[in-house]
Amino acid sequence: MEVQRLTGFIGAEISGLNLGDIKSQDINQIKKSWLDHKVLIFRNQEITRDQHIAFGCYFGELEIHPFAPSPEGYPEIVEIKSNDKVQYAASNWHSDVTWRQEPSLGSILRGRVIPDVGGDTSFANAAAAYDRLPEDIKNEVDGLFAIHDFTQTFGRRMSVEEQAEQHKKYPPARHPVIRTHPETGERSIYTNQPFVSHIEGISPERSQEILRILRQAMLNPSIQCRVQWEVDTIVMWDNRVVQHQASNDFYPQTRHVERVTIIGDKPF
Q1: Distance between CA atoms of 119 and 231, rounded to whole angstroms?
Q2: Is 5 designated active site?
Q3: 259 is catalytic
Q4: Domains of the chain
Q5: Is the pTM of this model over 0.90?
């Protein structure tokens, strides 16, 4: 297993492994590299969907997404197909499923159909973004909590009655604005535009201003890496300390990727 860093703050490309025939010592090395680099890229991984699921299970239990489509017979896989008719690329910076009470630990995404140009995914180190905040902003946001709600994104396709029914199963989640990584101790920004409705305990105007400041902090190119997809490229990222967004610059071509998502724990 060889590790080639992509940038000074985030990302590494891993070579010399076949994820369809992985050994326990390889998993231990991957776990260490994942904590070190936060985003890992594996090229030329011609694996089956069953092997994709099996690889994800080495890192924890996989979630079943209640709102996203899945291939028939593979409920653990989220199928993300996007073209000019169905624009499903996640183009706003976010961490996955933060609207859950126990959001995702990490995600593992595989390229199935990749456009000739465009459709890259960018990743940002949310701990480095937090470290660079002005001290007065750090002092203000430490200890605050934000409300994450699936209706901010997925609810747009539902009636009011459907939203109310789904809210019984998936009520709004209250998470710290700045969360602590349970393994590394890093502090990182844990708000995002797709799922956060507001920050508790402050005025709506100040809530929106802080959320804007935190979004802006993720946009610094020096704390990012950008992945250009190929068929059978696999990328895994740590949702506890990474935000990502996909470029929707490939229409009318099709981009088809598939994701398994590892269940995490309650942020603190």
Answers
A1: 12
A2: no
A3: yes
A4: 1-268 (3.60.130.10)
A5: yes
